[in-house]
């Protein structure tokens, strides 16, 4: 059983308030009076668990607080299997990562790269993802990433549901996670094709969400879309290539509008209609990957990286 509390640490710079950093921790009372066998990186006097938590910064994954000794121990990480020694008065607290990359950015992550997030909360399922902290004000969670020539995405329904791959080069975060995140609050979608010569093609959709498994993860796009790719997901050359409202299909689940089976024909899971003008999950040999983004990108032969990213939509007050 976990007890949840949130610590707010305010960092003052000489003149102005720079930012409010929020890190969340989960107490583990079931491990009371036990200590971690993994060496601590620092030990300080602390008045309370709250002041101890304030000492647990970006390099700290967990801390122990001893209410009798008023001591605080900072650890890089704690695994509960390593809580085997006994010493009276200790309670341990584990860092609970933010739900997405926007939360990572708000708690101090400022460079693009791999971060751990906790989309469902309470450390239910920690996932490592690629966070883009530069594009369009940063805070973008990559729900899909593909470096040229890496793994193909001809995966099963179950694999797309739970996620597969590694964020270092190719992964799908998982349809259940995409559904969970995009239904908690309004999200935008950002599509990136990075050319070998460094040029970036993108399209941003203001509103993006997907339904749950009972809807077959139905795709919902709304609002404006902008970018130098042009829209190929909604206003496709053929209405039968409009992906909006489409269910997800995989090699073992045919939910498309085609008499055949798009996911098998094009070797990858996606929100197919009959079948597509935009398809980011094709196979890497470019001759087998048709129309990744028709008509702007007709082949992936010069594409170094592809990413699908999401971020909670900024709510701006209306000016009157
Ligand atoms: C932590 O526990 C694991 C699993 O029992 C063990 O392999 C590892 O050596 C332990 N680490 C330390 C520092 O005791």
From TrEMBL:
It comes from the Eukaryota. SUPFAM superfamilies: Fibrinogen C-terminal domain-like (SSF56496). Residues 92-314 form the Fibrinogen C-terminal domain. Residues 1-17 form the signal peptide. It is found in: Secreted. Its main location: secreted. Coiled coil: none annotated. SMART domains: FBG. Keywords: Coiled coil, Disulfide bond, Glycoprotein, Secreted, Signal. One of its GO terms (cellular component) is extracellular region. NCBIfam families: GGGWT_bact (NF040941). This is Fibrinogen C-terminal domain-containing protein. The lineage of its organism: Eukaryota, Metazoa, Spiralia, Lophotrochozoa, Mollusca.
């Amino acid at each position: 059983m976990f007890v949840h509390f949130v610590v707010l640490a305010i960092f003052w710079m000489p003149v102005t308030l720079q930012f409010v950093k929020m890190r969340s921790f989960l107490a583990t009372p079931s491990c009371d009076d036990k200590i971690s066998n993994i060496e601590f990186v620092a030990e300080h006097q602390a008045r309370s668990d709250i002041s101890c938590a304030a000492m647990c910064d970006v390099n700290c994954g967990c801390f122990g607080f001893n209410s009798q000794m008023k001591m605080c121990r900072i650890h890089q990480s704690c695994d509960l299997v390593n809580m085997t020694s006994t010493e009276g008065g200790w309670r341990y607290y584990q860092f609970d990562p933010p739900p997405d990359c926007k939360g990572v950015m708000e708690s101090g992550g400022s460079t693009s790269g791999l971060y751990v997030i906790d989309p469902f909360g309470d450390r239910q399922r920690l996932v490592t993802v690629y966070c883009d902290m530069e594009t369009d004000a940063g805070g973008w969670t990559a729900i899909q990433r593909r470096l040229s020539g890496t793994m193909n995405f001809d995966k099963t329904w179950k694999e797309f549901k739970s996620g597969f791959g590694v964020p270092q080069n190719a992964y799908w975060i998982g349809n259940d996670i995409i559904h969970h995140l995009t239904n908690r609050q309004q999200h935008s979608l950002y599509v990136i094709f990075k050319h070998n010569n460094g040029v970036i093609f993108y399209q941003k959709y203001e509103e993006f969400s997907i339904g749950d498994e009972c809807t077959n993860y139905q795709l919902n796009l709304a609002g404006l879309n902008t970018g130098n790719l042009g829209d190929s997901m909604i206003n496709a050359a053929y209405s039968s290539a409009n992906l909006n409202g489409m269910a997800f299909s995989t090699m073992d689940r045919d939910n498309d509008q085609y008499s055949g089976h798009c996911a098998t024909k094009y070797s990858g899971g996606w929100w197919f209609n009959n079948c597509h003008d935009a398809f980011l999950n094709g196979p890497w040999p470019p001759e087998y990957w048709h129309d990744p983004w028709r008509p702007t990108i007709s082949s992936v032969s010069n594409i170094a990286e592809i990413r699908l990213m999401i971020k909670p939509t900024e709510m701006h007050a209306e000016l009157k």
